[in-house]
Amino acid sequence: MNLKKKTAIVTGAGRGLGRSIAETMASQGAAVVLVSRTRKQLQEVADTIHSNSGQALASPVDIRDEKEISKMVETTYNTFGSIDILVNNAGIIGPANFLNPENEKAWLETMDINLNGTWRCTQAVIPYMMKNKTSSGGKIINVVSGLGNRPFPRFCAYAASKAGMIQMTRSLSLELAPANIQINAIDPGVMDTPMQSEIRSMGRDQLGDDIFERFSKLHENNLLKDPNKVAALALFLASKQADHLTGETGTLDQYAEKNDNFSVPD
User: Fold this and answer.
1) How far apart are CA 121 and CA 65, in angstroms?
2) Among residues 77, 128, 158, 255, which one is catalytic?
3) Catalytic residue check, 158
4) Which H or E run contains 141?
5) 42-57 burial string, b = 16+ CB within 10 Å, else e?
6) Which residue, among 154, 157, 159, 156, has the nearest Cα to 205 in the 3D structure?
7) Fewer Cβ close by (within 10 Å): the C or N end of the chain?
8) Cα–Cα distance, 205 to 212 (Å, whole number)
9) What phi and psi, each to the nearest 5 degrees, are found at residue 243?
């Protein structure tokens, strides 16, 4: 799935799934702009990509800040000449207890990063994607969650933010269709990433016995998904092979079931 001469912006690229997606896209020829708040992590990813003869630019940005996003997007376009792919992966898990009145700040922060940050980044890149002189105007990939589609105790802020991202994907796909920009979403499932470590570290007091046991057993039984496999789906959605898809949300298995040209990696 060749991404040569393509430029991808990946948020939350310093670790976990974002890092896997960035490295996977770079391995297929894309110039990748790495976005997160942590410069050291981004530089480590950039160095890894450079060591494998790839192109990467570390760009520390807080996606709550519209000016920082605007500057990053403008720099990306001026450096590489196009913006072809945006992966909205940055996100936080947020508060685990809805009833705690001290969680108002955490609730608002979760919405501002997960949902509003996705909106800000998407809004910033669309005008540049519309300038593209390629057969595909652009690809936007949102990393969502199954919690955005079904009820689940705890993490209400996270679930609500992901539900908003899912509906944004569906609605915006119709609006962007005339510009030949495809927008799809990935439900990655429960992955072996730092976010899962953070959830388990909350302990029984915050999660409750049932939820704590659920996440702990997934880890203990080696049932957490490999983010590199999910990165393969992001690569597919960024490629010409997925030009026919827009407004879709699904897991690895769901995309594989509906698309003959994508299969779940071994």
Assistant:
1) 10
2) 158
3) yes
4) strand 138-143
5) bebbbeebeeeebbbb
6) 154
7) C
8) 9
9) -60, -25
